[in-house]
Amino acid sequence: MDNPYVPRPYKVLSSARETADTFTMTVGMAVLHSPGQFVQVSVPGYGEAPISICSDSRKEIKLNIRQVGAVTNALAGLKKGETVLLRGPYGKGYPMKKLNGKDIVIVGGGCGVAPLKGLIDYVENHRKDFGQVSMFLGYRSPDDIIFKKELAGWKKKYSINVTVDKKGNTKSCIDAREGFVTDALGETDIRADKSAAMICGPPIMMKGSIGILKSKGFRDKQIFVSTERLMYCAMGVCCHCMIRGKFTCLDGPVFRYDEIMDIENG
Amino acid sequence: MGKLKVGVYGITGCAGCQLSVIFNEDEILDIVELVDLRAFPFIKEVNPEEEFDCVIVEGLVADRGDLKTLKMLRRNSKMLVSLGACACTGCVPAYRSFTLKENYEHLLYRKMEEIKDVEPTPLDAHILVDHYIPGCPPEKKEILSFIKGLVRGSIPRPYQSPVCVECRQNGNTCLLDQGKPCLGPITAGGCHAVCINGGFECWGCRGPTEDMNLDLMVRMLRDRGFDDKFINDRLRTFAGLKLPMLEKVMSGKAHKTETTFRGVRVFYE
Amino acid sequence: MEVLLLKKERLNGFIEKLQQDFEVIAPLKGDVIRFLPLKNPDDIFLGKNAYFPIKEYFFKKNEVLFQFNGTKIIVPELPSKKRAFFGLRRCDLNAIKHQDMVFMNDIHDPYYTAARKDSYLIGYHCNTAPSPYCFCGSLELADYFDLMVYDKKDDFLVEIGSSKGKGMAKKYASLFSKTSKKISEEEKKIPGSDRLEKKDISLFYNNSDWKKGTDLCLSCGACTALCPTCYCFETHDEVKTSNINEGERKRNWSSCQLQEFTRVAGEHVYRKDREERFKHRIFHQLEYFKEKHKVPLCVGCGRCIEGCPTRIDFVDILNNMKVENG
Prior knowledge:
The complex is a heterotrimer of chains A (266), B (269) and C (326).
Chain A: E1 8-19, E2 22-27, E3 38-43, E4 47-52, E5 61-66, H1 70-76, E6 83-90, E7 103-109, H2 113-125, E8 133-139, H3 148-157, E9 159-164, E10 177-178, H4 181-187, E11 195-200, H5 203-215, E12 223-226, E13 242-243, E14 246-247, E15 254-256, H6 257-260
Parallel strand pairs in A: 7-8, 7-11, 8-9, 9-10, 11-12
Antiparallel strand pairs in A: 1-2, 1-6, 2-5, 3-4, 3-6, 12-15, 13-14
Chain B: E1 5-10, H1 16-22, H2 28-34, E2 36-39, E3 52-58, E4 61-63, H3 64-76, E5 77-83, H4 84-89, H5 101-104, E6 117-121, E7 131-133, H6 140-152, H7 163-169, H8 194-197, H9 214-223, H10 228-239, H11 246-250, E8 257-261, E9 264-268
Parallel strand pairs in B: 1-2, 1-3, 3-5, 5-7
Antiparallel strand pairs in B: 4-6, 8-9
Chain C: E1 3-7, H1 11-21, E2 23-29, E3 33-37, E4 62-69, E5 72-74, E6 83-88, H2 90-106, H3 110-117, E7 119-124, E8 147-152, E9 155-160, H4 163-171, E10 176-178, H5 185-188, H6 210-214, H7 222-226, E11 233-239, E12 246-253, E13 263-264, E14 268-269, H8 274-293, H9 303-306, H10 314-319
Parallel strand pairs in C: 2-6, 6-7, 7-8
Antiparallel strand pairs in C: 1-9, 1-10, 2-3, 4-5, 4-12, 8-9, 11-12, 13-14
């Protein structure tokens, strides 16, 4: 039987820088997956890190990686044609089939936009199954905006609001307003009745967004949040990612808000 | 890219920590392959003092000469590492801070004008320290791991859990149960509980953990019949300067204080 | 289930037979009682349960998951070992059952499976709770053994619990005699072991009484290291000094009682509060595991209390917990 701890080798098809500390790597891993799922990326000698898939294709996967530790820094050094070790995909993503016919509200903060991009790609591949799409994406500064190229395309099709905490002096081709993503969300008219909202970002931003959505009439069951924890096995065994009995790696990383709402710290 | 330039230096100390570097006999030649071991005055004759990528410093600041050397090393190196208990916590030489001056005054150098003592203090009391390899002596494998990590751009996180974790995994029973004043529960591990493996209680040479329950530790020692003088002495032997809250805890008047160790702030309530 | 009779004077003969076919692991008395490879059958100590759990024989403290050289991965050979474990109490047998659920059912863990599959489990029934900390009777323990030895004044009764057990009974048939006796459910209960009161602990998550435990908690991780069921682990890579592209990925035990357990990049600790960590262990043992596996993880051996430097008795704390208003 297969050894579940052993990652397999895949080809790096490309690696492109998004911002000063993030890059997107395309890996030749042909695997069925749903948006919101993640893979365990290994760099021998450095360890493993869970990275969410930010694409929707059966031929390859894209990984948007922020350089925050030893593993992610080592991954940044991998070039096209080199080998990367992966295992997965793991976790429960967004229940896309159950959301057919719904309007989609996407709220993302910083590198939390990455897993949501997988969702956007899915919606694009199944456009007729979903209603209106509105996005609220917040970043620290214009320099931190990821998926700039894709954003331009989304702009033409969906309602998009991009915010930056501070504009600074940098010129950006992206039209972003200064402020928090929660402000943009609060000011918009979104209908709760036939919508589902997906939130991914820093805990404080998720908390704020949930509050606003609820004030607009969203019920807990219409809101999906992403969780992040330290994890090693990704198979529900090592227990590091457990949140009150739920495994981030098995039962998450995407949770319907009513499943974990009584838990503090998101 | 050339090899990283590394220096190993000692200021006031017993040289035991530098010996721990050398005690990696099987791997010392590999280390020389991995990094450019530019300076190591303890074992090398020629030691160019230039731009280092990293210097590893043993010992504590005890006189003006130490301070001068330390500041020079900090200026000349991108990274500075405290090696061993003296460099990290002040260790036994810093115990002087907790005793009356008349107890040691007669031992000070009087005639040698150039030897003027400085209050004995660990390195981070004077300069910025980037990484800590604690212990008296430090664990030789930990030094190796650090050098490998340095070369590979993945410096290991310091071990921050108490000594008890490794101690229990080694199959030891608790020395506190035997009435011994073991400081394992409040001391950072990473030493494989080597002392307790040999039946000798932990004296806290690797310094306090961020998460220690100091109040409970003191209560446990008192419950076992140790008087306050003993407790104070024992807790301060290796890491007294990193336990500024001890006095308040002992008098039952602890409130939020903080100390820094390994670049991490230690809060104590 | 089928029961055989073993004359008391034949126990050593049985163990010696086992030693011919297996490496025998049994509780031996040293500074404390430990499960160790047995040399002389006379050394077996059955007066009290072992201080350290049996789990390290299956779920090892340190395990090399694989070696690597660049991106090439080499999984080590995982030879299985024929071992017979003698003197396992009902709690420890159930602890093995619960770890089997995790490592052989939830996932297929080849390391655990290799160590476990050729292991023969021979239990020893407690006629009375061997320690004041025991509370196995309050938990939902099952029959899980190959053979179970019941000490009945004049003789031992040996119950067969599996096909492995049946095989052993057949192989050593000359030592056993037939008996019409049966082991009743009543006989399987252990007097003095039901001190944990049944209550829905989910109602007590925010109870102020948890402070009684955390005030005495050093977060030293003794409870999780001594627990026969705790199965949390972490992995890390080590590289050789002679070639930094070559090395090993290792797995070792970890403990939910430590801040390091939930520390992520950027120094954020999810369960920073000592009370949160303390409660997490109790809730995982009594609640969370049950949600998925239908039985509590805890087997009531009491080692986490006996081995705790301050003897925090969570059973006592839970028993005294009352529903608070507000």
